[in-house]
Amino acid sequence: MKLGCFSVSLTVKDLNKSKEFYQKLGFEVFAGEESHGFLIMKNGDTNIGLFQGMFDKNILTFNPGWNQSAENVDEFTDVRDLCAVLKAKGIEVVESSVAGDAGPGSFSVIDPDGNPILFDQHV
């Protein structure tokens, strides 16, 4: 399975303070919109998302169809196929918005320790 771009999506209390902290660690704003409550930051090939007021827990995130620079890739495992494979392996899908044969879609699973994992395809 090709899971795509990996990042950690962090729930933050103060987006600006968190942005400033991660900038001190060498991260730069890559995408997102402060006025919408989120920023995506990069340090080399390492991606983090800062999200204020959007969810309760930090989330491991995979973006099928993207490389670490959020550029489309030709070959990837579609989110629909990933969802079907994980279900067939006995992994419970807790949230899903996968429809149709192609295009954007997402689903989530929870690991044995309660950590949410989001598969979020934008292409």
Present the secondary structure layout.
Elements: E1 5-12, H1 15-24, E2 28-33, E3 38-43, E4 46-52, E5 59-63, H2 79-88, E6 93-96, E7 105-110, E8 116-121
Main β sheet profile: 8 strands, mixed
**Number of separate helices:** 2
Order of SSEs, N→C?
EHEEEEHEEE
Task: Estimate the strand proportion.
Answer: 35-45%
Radius of gyration: 15 Å
Please give the order of strands in the largest beta sheet.
2-3-4-1-5-8-7-6
Global geometry: globular
- Helix percentage: 10-25%
**Counted beta strands:** 8
Backbone structural class: alpha+beta
Note the gap between the termini.
17 Å
Q: Which stretches of 5+ consecutive residues score pLDDT under 50? A: none
Query: What integer is the average pLDDT?
Result: 95
Tag the structure with descriptive keywords.
alpha+beta; eight-stranded mixed beta sheet; 8 strands; 39% strand
What does this structure look like?
This protein is α+β, with helices and mostly antiparallel strands and 123 residues long. It contains two helices and eight strands. It has an eight-stranded mixed β-sheet with strand order 2-3-4-1-5-8-7-6, with helices on one face. It is globular, with a radius of gyration of 15 Å. The relative contact order is 0.21.
